[in-house]
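Many introductory courses stop at the sequence. We go one step further.
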Amino acid sequence: MNGVNNFFEAVGLEKNVEKSATNLANLGSEAKLLNGVEGYRYLGVLEDRRSDVLKSEVLKALFGELKKRIDNLSKTKLNSCKLFKAINEHALSLYNYYIGLVDIEPLEFEQIDKNVRSILVHHRIHLKPANKERLYLPRDQFGRGLVSITHKNERILLQFLRDLETKSRYCIRKEGILRVINSKRTHLATIAEYLKRKYNIQDIGSLDLNMLRELQKNSLIEQIMKKPLHAILFDCLNDSNVDVAESSHLLLHGNNSPRSEALLCFIQERNLFFDNVGAICSHCNSSKKTVDHLATRCGRMLNSDYLRRHNEVMKCVHLHLCREYGIKKSKKLKTHSVQSVVANNSVEIRVDTTINTDTKVENNKPDIFVLDKMRNTITLIEIGITSQKKLKQVEVEKLHKYDLLASELGLIHKAKVTIVPLVLTWDGVVSKYYKHHCDTIGLEELTRAYIQSECDGFDLRSPFKPFLDAKFGRKSALRRLDIAGFQVHPTGDPNKFYVANAKNRDYSSFSELTFSENCSFLNMTSDNLNMLSKLAEIFGYDE
């Protein structure tokens, strides 16, 4: 105790005698001496007069604080990656102190995770029926990096139990604590057997934290693979040709808002038409309407939506090259204009232009042609956006499409010619060669993430926007009314509602709101001009 007092004096701390306690008589002058009935009370843990933990009250208070913190974080302008880190460190870390201290059962931890997901759904950071298991996977494996309280509980309890078992061999106090825990048969006492049964572990004695993390991750993936739609994206985990970490670049290094990322993931999981099985594509009227069909396979959209998506990616690469060679300094993609030919003293860049050669070459119009005059090199860049099944095939085709042209250009300019195929799927999956191709032309991490977001995010604008509006537009509008203090009363028509001011229950003052079939616009009719003006203000319409 003298050492403690000396330390306090050295660092300028003062001991609070009133809040200190001991059960050792020789330390009675240093702190309050406890009698035989009194016991230690943990800070932040509600207990009754008999020092029994009031578990339900503790969990209720914890969740209240958790919800408050997540609500506050969701109001910030953090991008999705940083928001999930903040939620993990600032909100979910509240439970770290109580795991092992309060006897919480596995089902209660699962309910906590479910309640957290409900908060995220409320803020549209996570969407229904999106893949809930994906929330807890690492961001470099198609996940969103949210900490699962259930999994964290398993790791902390296993580490706590192993520590008690090891130190009980030479520490009488640890041996006594372990004996009490085993006698009460709490979740902590049975955690090893619980994990053995849950994850089907043969040798529980060799289980360490790294192995447990891997088992937890594999368990999540197994659950995903049981779902036909959600499993499509994760099929590439078993494909040796796919670079999973590079395919997750959008989630790992992207600068998307939490709501935008939720929509991107929602489309990747192919949930849009789950409620309308068997519907026919409204564009070609011949194939089944699926997410993959609308993303890459519909022939009627080849020269419109698919071409615009292709051009957006090409525009991004073109801007990067212009900045790389000093033609342009601005980083703003929106104001960038792609010209057929741009050049300066060190480079000439051509876009979608026929390249003249001495002999006739059939494929002589690459997406981007770069002639580096200083290094005397030529780079032919070809962009391709396809589906997972055709990823390898398309990449090989793009790589060898301009072999003859490359030979001719090498002879004409006496230069080294490199063909760079930038091929990825509409949902951002890339091959193990994609990173090498990006490094060849010097694409940075943020640029690569933005290209992936353009491939996936372009579908938010077309062709999926009407279906996304139909799923989330009505819900968003009704939530706005609720926040503004209006009462909403349904009618027999699912697209029609009656709305009244919360202070006025007179049906004569109700306004009528009618959604279009895809919720892309809202009609409002009312005899009450004041209410109509307030509604127009809520939805951002002109009166």
